[in-house]
Amino acid sequence: MELRPIDLPRDLTPLGDMLCDTFQYPENPQWSVQTDEKDDISHMVKSFRRIWPLMRVAQVLAPSLRDMFRGYVAIEDGRIVGVTIIQRHGTTNAWVVGTVGVLPGYRRRGIARASLAKSLALMREHGAEKTWLGVINGNTPAQ
């Protein structure tokens, strides 16, 4: 498994596809990404790709945006199979772990743990003093 920093905008489309497949929970269907949500995610990814050049300029000009959409992707079999997405909370030294996900066929192999560990190290390198991670109540494997 290769872990590398998220590379936007290159990773946007594969991440959008991967996340829709990742967040499927047959044992708890209410947690799963629904069909209409997949369409929304696809539309959001396409929109974000279009405005990415403006986002890069905004990140240069606005300190609060510089640490947005950071994290690591796990690559196996030539595709993204896992991700941890982090970002700084405004201009504070607090960070938020927004997403941790691994495709179902690649779970229970330490991919989430490895990408989260790399992301935590990156946050510390950037002065993190606090980190938040939310988990769906009842998602025991994630807790």
Please name the CATH topology: Aminopeptidase
Per DSSP, the total helix count is 3
* Order of SSEs: EHHEEEHE
What is the class in the CATH system? Alpha Beta
Would you spell out the secondary-structure blueprint of this structure?
Blueprint: E1 2-5, H1 12-22, H2 35-61, E2 70-76, E3 79-88, E4 94-102, H3 111-125, E5 130-133
Helix pairs in contact: 1-2
Describe the structure.
The protein has about 140 residues and is an alpha+beta fold. It has a single domain, classed as Aminopeptidase (3-Layer(aba) Sandwich). It is built from three helices and five strands; from the N terminus they run E-H-H-E-E-E-H-E. The protein has helices at about 10-20, 35-60, 110-125, and strands at about 1-5, 70-75, 80-90, 95-100, 130-135. Strands 1-2-3-4-5 form a five-stranded mixed sheet. Helix 1 (about 10-20) runs antiparallel to helix 2. The longest helix has 27 residues, at about 35-60. The protein is globular and about 45 Å long. It starts with a strand and ends in a 10-residue tail after the last strand.
